[in-house]
Specification:
Helix content: 55-70%
Strand order of the largest sheet: 1-3-2-4-5
Largest sheet: 5 strands, mixed
Strand content: 5-15%
Order of helices and strands: HEHEHHEHEEHHHH
Structural class: alpha/beta
Shape: elongated
Number of strands: 5
Radius of gyration: 30 Å
């Protein structure tokens, strides 16, 4: 009997470690309770997503690192599940994996590398510290609080006008970026064409095509001869 209880205890401990070794999976039922008063770092994923699976080990390692942190929650949401889809819709998730961080009421998208060291460095800098936002102004400096008060005093039309200006500036930057990429693409296409032409010249200089054909025939004949010799033996 004692052995039985010992085995059960070991089994329970192993199971507990497995759960503790994974990021918290958020659902519509536990979301509020898990993120209340916390800064979040959340991975939105789909089980079929290869990139999601590739980063799973590092993500769970990050979760273990911050398992007992009083301010940080490292979590994940399965956007294909009934329990996760509403959360993914609220965060307007368009692709997988998508990582967001910060105040869960105004989370920002993480665009960095997905290895453990990069994730940990980002979390240390941007997630472990109290975050200033409209919803958590107690974490804001006096200067930022004053700026927020000014913004809150503006009309909807004025605020939407600023949003339009930002969107226009972003479009201008995107256009400039696309133009530069286009030039690089044209140069790349030119270099590829020159490279392939040089390879063709080298092969023509040494009659490479015919050498390959002759060697293929000889190798085939050699294989046939070896096979016939083996059968005779």
């Amino acid at each position: 009997m004692q052995l039985r209880w010992t085995l059960l205890a070991i089994f329970a401990l192993c199971c507990q470690r497995q759960v503790l070794g994974e990021a918290i999976q958020l659902t519509v039922e536990n979301f509020s309770a898990q993120v209340d008063g916390k800064n979040v770092f959340i991975k939105f994923f789909a089980p079929w997503c290869a990139h999601c699976r590739a980063m799973s080990e590092d993500w769970d390692k990050l979760a273990v690192t911050y398992a007992n942190h009083p301010l940080v929650v490292i979590a994940k949401v399965d956007c294909t599940s009934d329990e996760g889809q509403p959360i993914c819709q609220d965060f307007d998730i368009q692709g997988f994996p998508t990582l967001v961080y910060g105040d869960p009421m105004s989370a920002e998208t993480y665009e960095g590398q997905r290895d453990y060291d990069s994730l940990f460095a980002w979390a240390e800098e941007h997630v472990t510290k109290p975050i200033c936002s409209i919803y958590k102004q107690e974490n804001c400096s006096p200067e930022v609080k004053t700026m927020i008060e000014k913004l809150e005093a503006m009309s909807d039309d004025d605020l939407e006008g600023i949003v339009s200006k930002v969107e226009q500036r972003v479009k201008e930057q995107e256009a400039a970026f696309d133009a530069k990429v286009s030039v690089i693409q044209q140069q790349y296409d030119k270099y590829v064409k020159e490279f392939n032409a040089n390879l063709d010249k080298i092969k023509d200089e040494f009659n490479y095509k015919y050498i390959e054909q002759i060697l293929d025939i000889r190798h085939a004949e050699s294989s046939t001869t070896d096979s016939e010799t083996s059968e005779e033996l």
